[in-house]
Specification:
By secondary structure, the protein is mostly helical. It is built from three helices and two strands, in the order E-H-E-H-H. The chain has two domains: about 60 residues, Double Stranded RNA Binding Domain (2-Layer Sandwich), CATH 3.30.160.20; about 35 residues.
């Protein structure tokens, strides 16, 4: 099933924008929003499934994104800090390996 999302006057611009952002892979170059279904044996049942999918997509796109809670912000900050520490530890381990190479010298050089 296809419909021209840019010509859909029954959708607000904000919903169209979020719909395109959330489902970029379903919009072709001509601006058609393509939904497929092969879940059922009959064409009519598959059409109804496509309509149900479209309804779900539109409902998801019509919901305004909410504010991020302080708990969520703190959790993300903690994860970010943990990632930074992990990267720093890996870099220090790698630097240590390289530093040991220089100190030990090259056993196989033809000096």
């Amino acid at each position: 099933m296809r419909f021209y999302i840019y010509k859909a006057s029954w959708l607000s611009e904000s919903v169209k924008t979020r719909l395109i952002e959330q489902h970029q892979h379903k919009v072709n170059a001509a601006g058609q929003f393509c939904i497929t279904s092969d879940q059922y044996r009959t064409q009519e049942a598959n059409r109804m499934d496509c309509l149900q999918k479209l309804k779900t997509y539109i409902l998801e796109a019509s919901q305004e994104p909410g504010e991020t809670s302080d708990a969520q912000k703190a959790h993300v900050h903690a994860l970010h800090r943990k990632q930074q520490l992990r990267v720093k530890k890996e870099k220090m381990e790698r630097a240590s390996i390289k530093r040991d190479r220089v100190k030990g010298g090259n056993k196989y050089s033809a000096d």
